[in-house]
Automatic annotation (TrEMBL):
<protein>
    <recommendedName>
        <fullName>DUF3097 domain-containing protein</fullName>
    </recommendedName>
</protein>
<dbReference type="Pfam" id="PF11296">
    <property type="entry name" value="DUF3097_C"/>
</dbReference>
<feature type="region of interest" description="Disordered">
    <location>
        <begin position="1"/>
        <end position="25"/>
    </location>
</feature>
<dbReference type="InterPro" id="IPR053883">
    <property type="entry name" value="DUF3097_N"/>
</dbReference>
<feature type="domain" description="DUF3097">
    <location>
        <begin position="20"/>
        <end position="83"/>
    </location>
</feature>
<dbReference type="Pfam" id="PF22845">
    <property type="entry name" value="DUF3097_N"/>
</dbReference>
<feature type="domain" description="DUF3097">
    <location>
        <begin position="113"/>
        <end position="269"/>
    </location>
</feature>
<dbReference type="InterPro" id="IPR021447">
    <property type="entry name" value="DUF3097_C"/>
</dbReference>
Amino acid sequence: MRQYDPDLTPPWKRQRPAPEVPAEPDLVVEEVTTGFCGAVIRCEKTAQGPTVTLEDRFGKHRVFPMEPRGFLLEGRVVTLVRPRAAAPSAPQRTASGSVAVPGARARVARAGRIYVEGRHDAELVERIWGDDLRIEGVVVEYLEGVDDLPAIVDGFSPGPDARLGVLVDHLVAGSKESRIAAQVTGEHVLVLGHPYIDIWEAVKPSSVGIQSWPTVPHGQDWKKGVCRALGWPENTGAAWQRILSSVHSYKDLQPELLGRVEELIDHVTAGR
């Protein structure tokens, strides 16, 4: 049996659906019936359906129903629709994973300090925790080794309002570093370390683009040995800049370092 189209309007005379355009503020459109042209001020939901308020160049406001094919945009017929609500944006994070505080100013430096062994250690801590430390007013300094740590702690005179945190490389039981750490550790002094020979190893090999950190024979300069094993020029300064440039967030560091630095920050800022 032959089927008939209940709409007897020839296909070539039927109106095509007009594109839907969100009625964003300041969008300039023309209402097709009245010819009123203006910028979108607001959209509202009413009992009769959604409406849009337009403002013309003289500052006059008019309200129109948001009917299909009801407006012209740059000469094209469109259907205005209510803009979608913006999805809530996720809070911004610092490189350490902390929630960022937009516009926060650095505090005046506190009496408390965090000491690390060398310049590379200090640069890595700054790269990841710099924003957090500035907000807390904590300064990071470096020791160039731990041999003079007892004298430095004695001269610092730690106390409740001047806590001291120290990050030591290769802090393992029975080592020289562990014996020095035991001499200075106290209520207001916290010495923590990681198991790596050098701070370079605290960066994940995958972040640097290598399979693993090479084993360097005992007695050789470890950093130069790493450069040789990896086929890098024996320029440890350039090698470190290559490593540091691969660090973008806490995800590029080993957890053994992350936990120790966070603990030192908590210690130095305790009670504030």
